Structure formats: C-alpha cells, structure tokens
Amino acid sequence: MTISGWLQIALVLIAVLLLAKPLGLYMARVFAGEPVWLSPVLCPVEAGFYALAGVRADKEQGWLAYAVSVLLFSLAGFIALYAMLRMQHVLPFNPLGFGPMAPDLAFNTAVSFVTNTNWQNYGGETTLSQFSQMAGLTVQNFLSAATGMAVAIAVTRAFMRSKVSELGNFWVDMTRATLYVLLPLAMLVTLAFIALGLPQSLDANVVATTLEGAQQTIATGPVASQEAIKQLGTNGGGFFNVNAAHPFENPSAFSNYLNIIAMLSVSLALVYAFGQLVGSRRQGWALIAVTLVLLTAGAGVVYWAETAGNPMLHAIGVDALPGNMEGKEVRFGQAMSALYTAVTTGLSNGGVNAMHSSLTPLGGLVPMFLIQLGEVLPGGIGSGLYGMIVFAILAVFVAGLMVGRTPEFLGKKIEAREMKLAMLAVLILPLTILGFTAVSAVAEFGISSITTPGPHGLSEILYAFTSAAGNNGSAFGGLSGNTSWYNTTLGIAMLLGRFAYIVPVLAIAGSLASKPRAEASSGSFPTDRPLFVGLLIGIILIMGGLQFFPALALGPIAEHFSMLAGQSF
C-alpha cells in the first residue's frame, strides 16, 4: 500500500460526499412533489404518461396495493424482456444475425435485469443484438433502478407521516425517479463517457488490420449509454463479457474515476434525501457514516491483501513488489481496483474492473462478505436505503433491550410486528444463499461447473448464490453458470433476494405509517449520534455477516491458510 494509492481512494470518496447534499436535496424535492428546475420541461411529459396509463397521480396506495403494483410491474417487465431475448432473431437492429437465447438462459437473464441484479451467464458482444441491448437490458436498467427508488421513498414516507395507511403511489414514484433523476443523469454521464472514448454506435463489428497484417474483429455498439445507467442505477451488467475491465467500457483512469463516482452518487444521495424528508439531516449523515466506515474498511483490506501478494510466489523468489496483479488492469493499479471491488459489492452493482476470482483468498473474501452483509454500503439504488432501515430497526430494538425502553426510530415505536417482519427480511439472504450452495456443493450437476476443486471451488459456488440473492451480479469467473441448474436456481435466488425482501419491508412501512409519530424525549435513544453509528455497524456485522462465517471458513479462509502453508488446490 502507498500514500498515493490512499490519496486516489480519498479523492473519489470526497467527490461523492460533495455530491451527496445537492443531489440529495434535489431528489427530496422531486419525491415531495415540489417543483425543480426541470419541471417546466418534464411536467407535461409526466402528465402525459399518467394519462396514457390511466394513473391518477393524486390517488395514493396502502402498503399492500403498493407491493402488488411493484410485483405486477416487475412481472410485466420480465415477460417483455424474456420474449425479446427469445425472439431477437426476428427483431430489428441485429446486424450480426444472433439467434434466440436458450429458454433457461433467457429466464436467468430476464430475471437478472428485472431484479436489478444483472448477473450474466453469457458474453454480451457475442450473444445479444443491439436491439436486445438497448430496448431490453438498458430499459430494464432504468426501470429496475426506479422501482428500488420508489420502494425506498415509500418506506421513507412511513416515518414522515402519522396515523395514515397510505405510502404514496408506486406509478408516480417510479415515473418521477426515471424522468427527473435517472434519465437526466444518464444523459450527462453518457456524454462524458463518449468524450472519454466509449463507443456509441448501432454499427456491426469493425474489422481492423493489425500491425502483423492479420484481421481482427472489434465489437462495438451503444456502449456509453448502457454503461451510464449501468453505474447510476447500480445495475452492473456490462456490454462486454469482461465488463469494466474492457477498454471500450473503461478506457482510462479518468473513466474509472467516473465509473466509481457514478456508482456511488445516487445511492448515497438517496440516503441524504431520506434525512431531509424525515426532517433530520443528521440522521442521513449518520447512515452515510456507517456506509463509508465499512466501505473504506473493505477497500482497505482488499488493497492490503492484493499488495501483499501471494506468499507461494515469494517462496520461489518472484519479485513481490507489484503484489498480486493477476486479473487486474495496469491502467487502474491496485488501489483503484481495490476501491472498485469494494464499491461494486458494497452496492448491488456487480460491475468489475478486475477479476474477483483472481484476487487473493482474503481479497476475494471481502467482496463476498460485503454482499452477504445485505448490500447496504450504501447498497443498490433504493434497496440499500430500505435495507439499512431494516438494520436500523434491529439496532434500536437491541438498544431498547439494553436500556429497558420500548425502542423507537425517528419517533415510531418498534413493536413485535415490525421485529417479526424485519427478521423475516434479514433471514431471506442466508436461507437462499446457504441452501442453494449446500445442494450445489454436493450434487454432481453443481460441482461439475467449478474449475478449481477444494476451497476455491466452494468459494465459486458460494459467491454465485451470494451475488444472485444479494442482487449484485458479479461473479467468481471460474464457475460455468450457463447450465440448466445454475440458470434456474440463480434466477430463483434473484427473485427471492429482491421480492421476498421488498414485501416484508413494505409491510413494515405500512405498520409504521399507521402509528403516531412521537416527539423525541429525554429518554429517547438518539439515532443520529456516533454511539448509534457504532451500534448499527455492529448489528450489520453480526446479523448480516456472522451467519455466513462457517461457509467462509470452508472457502476463502481455508484457501488462505493453505496458501500460507505453500499448498495449492
């Protein structure tokens, strides 16, 4: 590790923090229904969408109706994308004549993009037409992100309101998230990416002649626009198979900086918007502090592990100075590869600029563990915020037990119903991840897909289901996931990780909205102070991560000690 490397990391985090307040205030105004500088242009467009869809913007929904709307909208998106992938051979903008996706792969891909996961069991440049990339994947990158934002705002309203049953209108929240937030930002970032060298074209592949006189086929397409919403919407699915390690997705150190800033900016600003909307900016900053402490720690461990390198190479006299550069791009280096790895898994982004399977065992443990924490650092766009609120509810419950008082969070009493629903939400991840991993690790149809036996092979399987259930989308690349078993089970894991979490969270919101909002008293436990930040970090680590320790001990931890002993698998 070097001072220069830490300065690079610090510059990115400072830039994101500087953006959090203005962008958060803007989003707070959008979701409060207040006019913003884009309103004169977008208000007529917004009203036109409501008229076409038959939506009454002034009619609000209770938690159950809101949840049904989320499920039905996502189901419609899945059906449309699945049909598009199966019929891309008869649809336009297919200059290379790609055929239809296989049914199980189309199921996996459609579920992946509708759930904001973007797991990819295929190579985009060799499988999908330009139409599928744009009208299918890029559209769902907007809509799945907007759905997560809408749910987060519905949960936020539960703390803003008192003795009501309504949480807002899903169709209005989703439309405003798309029109006022995601679309303008994506346009700006797309233009910046084009200026930095990313392609934006509907042409087929370009054939070039190399210096040796050979012919080389270079894939191109609408890369910049997909890359912009991929990062802003914490989607992560790349146009190219190697994602942001490809020079057309991420050509330089400058584009790498913009990638990470775009990833973090909206999710972190939404946390600030939460504080603004509930009337406590200090609460927003407290949650941001939790995020940055754990995220910086994760990046630091990866940075340390990768610069320390492989002791097996040290033993045979290989120069240890560069550290472990396998699977990394020289143009990014250790520090920015480490930060990208931590950010993409602390979020539910899933994009990569280095191959996670090539990380050292401890370096590879960190991104897996960050996903297992629930991806609340700051998590997926919207999903990270409502996930953090679930952990905050658990934290105030623990604090209430410690001081002998009924727990409260932002003036709302946390009682048995909220705790049961919170625990239901929190248990979804371990049940899904560990259950599918256990079966895949002993069945022939599961272990036949791994490339490395032993602890690393287990890590490949564990990472896959961790990524799917956590709606992340990154992978340990050694697993051959394009099989009927993995396409199906990973798709089910994505659905459970998204919607089996959203429904209890909205139920919590409905319960809290119906309660009176009490003013803080001298006996209230303050949730915007350093003491609560420390407690919340502890709850996230214990409730989110401790249950995975036995599996991690058999995978990356066992691999680490084997490496120290000079053994390989």
Automatic annotation (TrEMBL):
It is a multi-pass membrane protein. PANTHER family: POTASSIUM-TRANSPORTING ATPASE A CHAIN (PTHR30607), POTASSIUM-TRANSPORTING ATPASE POTASSIUM-BINDING SUBUNIT (PTHR30607:SF2). The chain crosses the membrane at residues 36-55, 62-85, 142-159, 179-198, 257-278, 285-305, 385-403, 424-443, 490-510, 531-554. It comes from Devosia equisanguinis. Part of the high-affinity ATP-driven potassium transport (or Kdp) system, which catalyzes the hydrolysis of ATP coupled with the electrogenic transport of potassium into the cytoplasm. This subunit binds the extracellular potassium ions and delivers the ions to the membrane domain of KdpB through an intramembrane tunnel. Coiled coil: none annotated. Keywords: Cell membrane, Hydrolase, Ion transport, Membrane, Potassium, Potassium transport, Transmembrane, Transmembrane helix, Transport. It comes from the Bacteria. Belongs to the KdpA family. GO terms for molecular function: hydrolase activity; P-type potassium transmembrane transporter activity; potassium ion binding. This is Potassium-transporting ATPase potassium-binding subunit. It is found in: Cell membrane. Pfam families: KdpA.
